[in-house]
Specification:
This protein has one helix at residues 3-20, and strands at residues 47-62, 71-85, 90-101, 106-108, 123-125, 128-137, 143-150, 174-183, 186-196, 206-221, 225-239, 250-265, 268-282, 292-304, 307-317, 339-340, 343-357, 360-371, 374-377, 384-386, 389-408. The protein has 418 residues and is mainly β. Strand 8 (174-183) and strand 9 (186-196) form a beta hairpin. The longest helix is centred in the N-terminal third of the chain and has 18 residues, at 3-20. 33% of the residues are buried.
Length: 418
């Protein structure tokens, strides 16, 4: 089926959902951030702040079957910085981001992210350290433009199948450009994450990821019922010239369009929605086994105080999630050349957040992937047939996002040592 035909069917499907839910179901289900924040601990003009951002985490991923390996993440990411408000419009922040996995003393100098596979030919001892530098242009109360390191603490508002929540605390800070907009009825995040810069004769490719996400809100009954339409787009590119090896230029796309009805009943928030997701490979390449694929993701959300539960059903064919968990892909990441036919699974996610004190939070989460009957093919081997299996992951994270005022200058030219 062609992409145009699929989009027509998806459009009809979402219109049906919109009409059917007018008597139905306010909770935005995001692990690490409730809204698309324009500023975080923003310094005022002529104000110097010392900032501490840290994630202490323990995550256990017990994965079963031929889809992906399980692993454990025990460690912390610590980002101490200094920030200064040059004016009401411009601020800058500089520091270092440190990653430590308990028990590790040697770290490859590579990008700590799921995709793509990086060649780590140099190593750091003791801790994985990367510089942190950011300049913010606060255009107005609704718009912000960032240069340097950019924010991903809210998963860029992307749906779970497109963005693995582990990137928020375990991956390296993203770098590049980011434009955020936060209005009462529309939120938007546009970013360019430049992942790999190349010099002549480098053994890896120039790599970047471009992303767009927006959410539009329509209030049917204020503070009681509203409709939400999210739109997401990701483009991952591998390129570069004058490299030491033979590399092909490759680009992959992820897109998603959805519709969600949110309703509030006192202190209880509920939501019912669905996302249609699309994958496409531009040009020829051997890293991905599919040229084009799709997925459908209907879900139900429930929230009461600090407890949030999400139950979804994920149906996919030839789909590749560029930044998401391998569970949402139709190929195996632990068995070479194994690709799966059309597959579906149930997905459950529960999170609990406790605000310890200002700037300090405790989060616990549980994910369950219930893979239904699945078949697959691997060259030279019999047909893979599995009746289904259950994988799960759980994690606890203690996060700190705190700022200390060091000095307020009377003018921008005043020396801090006077």
């Amino acid at each position: 089926m062609r992409f145009g035909d699929r989009m027509k069917r998806a459009f009809i499907f979402f219109i049906f959902i919109f009409v059917a839910l007018t008597h139905c179901v306010k909770a935005q289900f995001l692990f690490a951030g409730e809204q698309n924040q324009i500023t975080r601990n923003r310094p005022e003009a002529n104000q110097l702040l010392f900032n501490i951002r840290s994630y202490c985490f323990f995550v256990d991923n017990e994965y079963k079957g031929e889809k992906t390996f399980g692993y454990t993440l025990p460690g912390f990411r610590l980002t101490p910085t200094l920030s200064f408000g040059i004016s009401d419009k411009v601020s800058m922040e500089a520091g270092v981001s440190l990653l430590n996995y308990h028990g590790a003393n040697k770290y490859p100098c590579s990008i700590y992210s799921f995709f793509p596979t990086w060649l780590g030919y140099q190593y750091l001892e003791g801790v994985h350290a990367v510089p942190y530098f950011k300049v913010d242009w606060h255009i107005n109360s609704d718009w912000n433009l960032s240069f340097g390191n950019i924010d991903n603490h809210d998963s860029h508002l992307l749906p779970e199948p497109l963005y693995n929540v582990e990137h928020c605390f375990a991956s390296d800070p993203e770098n590049g450009l980011q434009l955020k907009m936060n209005k009462p009825f529309h939120k938007m995040d546009i970013w360019l994450n430049w992942q790999s810069f190349v010099f002549k004769n480098d053994i890896h490719q120039e790599t970047f990821c471009f992303g767009y996400n927006s959410q539009s809100f329509l209030d049917i009954k204020q503070d009681k019922f509203r409709m939400v339409m999210p739109i997401s787009f990701l483009a991952q590119h591998l390129g570069g010239e004058n490299l030491s090896g033979s590399f092909s230029i490759q680009t992959w796309l992820n897109m998603a369009v959805g519709l969600k009805a949110e309703a509030r009943f006192g202190s209880i928030n509920t939501a019912l929605g669905a996302d249609y997701l699309f994958y496409k490979q531009i040009g020829s390449g051997s890293l991905m086994p599919f040229d084009e694929g799709w997925a459908l993701y209907p879900y139900f959300e429930f929230a009461y105080d600090d407890l949030r539960i999400k139950l979804g059903y994920y149906d996919s064919e030839d789909f590749v999630s560029l930044l998401g968990s391998p569970h949402f892909c139709n190929y195996s990441s632990n068995t070479p050349d194994l690709v799966f036919d059309r597959a579906n699974q149930y997905y459950l996610r529960a999170t609990y957040r406790y605000d310890i004190t200002k700037g300090c939070k405790f989060d616990a989460y549980l994910q369950i992937f219930k893979q239904n009957h699945i078949t697959g093919d691997r060259p030279g081997f019999p047909k893979v047939i599995r009746d289904g299996f259950v994988s799960f992951s759980f994690g606890v994270i203690l996060s700190i996002d705190h700022s200390i005022l060091l000095k307020r200058f009377s003018s921008i030219n005043e020396s801090m040592f006077e």
